[in-house]
Automatic annotation (TrEMBL):
Originating species: Aegilops tauschii subsp. strangulata
Pfam families xrefs: Remorin_C
Keyword annotations from UniProtKB, A to Z: Coiled coil
Domain Remorin C-terminal: 21-85
Protein family (similarity comment): Belongs to the remorin family.
Protein name: Remorin C-terminal domain-containing protein
Entry keyword annotation includes Lyase: no
Parts forming coiled coils: 50-84
Length: 86
């Protein structure tokens, strides 16, 4: 009788351990999934920010180049004007 009880108790404990390990495995998988989703979301946001920064930088560089060209044109016109005065 005691042997049967011990066998049943051991089986119950083994089953409980397997169920606990399964539950822990599922929890770990869920945590990893959530971590991956958060990392992917952060990566997407960083990419969007970098794209925005690059667009703004390109626009500013284009404006700067346009201003530099205008200044060079005015400088050349002024040099020509001074040359004609002399």
């Amino acid at each position: 009788m005691l042997k049967n009880y011990l066998k049943t108790r051991y089986a119950d404990l083994a089953l409980a351990r397997v169920e606990s390990e399964k539950r822990n495995s599922l929890i770990k998988a869920w945590e990893e999934n959530e971590k991956t989703k958060a990392e992917n979301k952060a990566t997407k946001k960083v990419s969007a920010i970098l794209s925005w920064e690059n667009t703004k930088k390109a626009n500013i560089e284009a404006q700067l180049k346009k201003i530099e060209e205008q200044l060079e044109k005015k400088k050349a016109e002024y040099a020509e004007k001074m040359k004609n005065k002399a």
